[in-house]
Write a structure and sequence with these properties.
- The complex is a heterodimer of chains A (286) and B (196).
- Chain A has 286 residues and is an alpha/beta fold.
- Helices cover 30% and strands 22% of the residues of chain A.
- Chain A has a domain of 197 residues: Rossmann fold.
- In chain A, the strands form 2 sheets. A 7-stranded mixed β-sheet of chain A has the order 5-6-7-3-8-9-10, sandwiched between helices. In chain A, strands 2-1-4 form a 3-stranded antiparallel β-sheet, with helices on one face.
- Chain B has 196 residues and is mainly α.
- Chain B has one domain.
- The chains are: A alpha/beta (286), B mainly alpha (196).
- The interface between A and B is medium-sized, with 21 and 12 residues.
């Protein structure tokens, strides 16, 4: 079985590839059907969230179409994780409207959470459980779960099931988290810094896996602070900084005509570079 | 309260409830929070009700086995097993609510390692001042007064009062226990944080 076939099996039938292809790419940019509920996976309008008097997210608006890989790019503390947690229904927004797969995540959390897969930035594993035990436990929470053994192979941990999660390396733990995000055959995947802590080899393998998921029509929202990761993986990108949307559009400079910016002079590829004058946000490509 | 076993059975039943509902549940939940497991479970279809039901069931199963062993051991040592055990089990359930509330309050507000130390420390204090292994009326006067507002003494004395026909029903202790059973879970719900 090819890797793409493995990835295809990891998704529910609803995210099928024909729909995915039509919703992706330049042709969809001006597509009137883009606002159709079936073509839109996520719509966010005027989203704000404060922690005390610190504004984590300010007046954020964007749309994620079904079948696209959408990136939230920004430095640490930009509000990426907060945004994703609101979309997952884990946190309630202070202002704004959010629709995810046609439902309100705050009100319809339980229904929504059987249709999404989530990879946290860190943690979330029982240290005393072996990878397969962890996957089998989580499979029990979903109505139509994937095969845990197959997923373990898919993320390259088939040989590591002799050990407990406590003894996995950072990158291995992240791969197990990715498998856990896939175990419910989600229509929509949230990956919060999916390659953080991975060595170059594991990062390249994870990028391949995300590309495979994209090939089979997965809708993916991922956060990253690496411009290279965003360019490699994302169809479209929202760049956030200090809770504000800085730019929205395609990550490729060749597509910069589609970039819609708040201040007309700022285009995505340029403004993202300027977020990290020392280049620290960029990572060496594996 | 002629025989030591008449004093010890209700005390140790209460002690078992405190250990399971407060210390074991609290430390487990505190570490689940520390490891990010609670947050991870929060984004699965498992509902909060589902999680809470599982934890309740876990505590009740352990308490059932503990109570069974303790009652049989007491009976083997000459303790009189009477139908009064039924209301005593009801009181132990009320105590479970109170101690689970305290355990989860600590688990949801303190760092895992601090919670570990505080839960164990509190367990020892409540054990000593709880009339469980050491009779309250042998404590110095001030300590005895403090002990009577603590949940451990309230539970042990109420269980003892229900089990022993020679003891008058301890209304004051029962009221203190009920107050803990309401206040502790309310505080836990109010202040519990899913993430450290």
């Amino acid at each position: 079985m090819s890797r793409t076939e493995l990835a295809r099996g990891a998704l529910s039938a609803e995210g099928d590839s024909a729909e995915g292809d039509s919703a992706r790419g330049d042709s969809a940019q001006g597509d009137p059907a883009a606002d159709d509920d079936r073509a839109v996976a996520i719509s966010v309008s005027g989203l704000s969230k404060n922690y005390g008097n610190h504004a984590a997210v300010r007046d954020l608006s964007f749309t994620v179409r079904r079948g696209e890989v959408f990136g939230l790019l920004g430095p640490n503390g930009a509000g990426k994780t907060t945004t994703v947690e609101i979309l997952e229904g884990y946190r309630a927004p202070d202002a704004g409207t959010v629709r995810v797969l046609g439902v309100d995540p705050t009100l319809d959390g339980p229904e929504l959470r059987s249709r999404i897969g989530v990879m946290l930035q860190e943690g979330g594993l029982y240290p005393g459980l072996r990878p397969l035990e962890m996957l089998e436990l989580f499979a029990a929470y979903y109505p139509d779960p994937d095969d845990p053994k197959r997923l373990l192979e898919l993320v390259g941990l088939g040989e590591r099931n002799t050990t407990t999660a406590r003894r996995l390396s950072g990158g291995e733990a992240q791969r197990l988290s990715l498998a856990l995000a896939l175990v419910g055959r989600p229509e929509l995947l949230f990956l919060d810094e999916p390659t953080a802590g991975m060595d170059p080899h594991a990062r390249a393998a994870t990028w391949d896996l995300i590309r495979d998921l994209r090939e089979v029509g997965a809708t993916v929202v991922l956060t990253t602070h690496g411009m290279d990761e965003a360019e490699q993986l994302c169809d479209r990108l929202a760049i956030v900084d200090h809770g504000d949307l800085v730019a929205l559009g395609s990550p490729k400079s060749s597509r910069s005509r589609h970039v819609r910016t708040r201040s007309a002079s700022r285009h995505a590829p340029v403004s993202t570079r300027s977020l990290w004058p020392d280049g620290s946000g960029c990572r060496v490509k594996g | 309260m002629s025989e030591p076993v008449e004093f010890l059975v209700p005390g140790v039943l209460s002690l078992a409830v405190m250990a399971t509902a407060m210390v074991s549940l609290g430390i487990n939940t505190g570490y689940e929070r520390h490891y990010g497991v609670l947050k991870r479970l929060g984004v699965t279809p498992l509902s909060r009700t589902g999680l809470l039901s599982a934890k309740t069931l876990q505590v009740l199963v352990i308490e059932f086995v503990q109570s069974l062993l303790l009652v049989l051991t007491g009976w083997a040592l000459g303790w009189q097993l009477t139908p009064r055990i039924i209301p005593a089990l009801v009181v132990l359930l009320v105590g479970t609510v109170a101690f689970a509330g305290i355990g989860l309050l600590l688990a949801g507000t303190l760092r895992a390692e601090v919670n570990l130390a505080v839960s164990n420390g509190l367990f020892l204090v409540l054990l000593f001042l709880g009339g469980m292994a050491y009779p309250l009326d042998r404590l110095p006067g001030a300590l005895e007064m403090i002990a009577h507002v603590l949940p451990s003494a309230a539970l042990a004395e109420t269980v003892r009062g229900v089990l022993d026909p020679a003891v008058a029903f301890p209304y004051a202790d029962a009221v203190v226990l009920l107050m803990w059973a309401v206040a502790a879970p309310v505080m836990a719900v109010r202040w519990f944080r899913w993430e450290e």
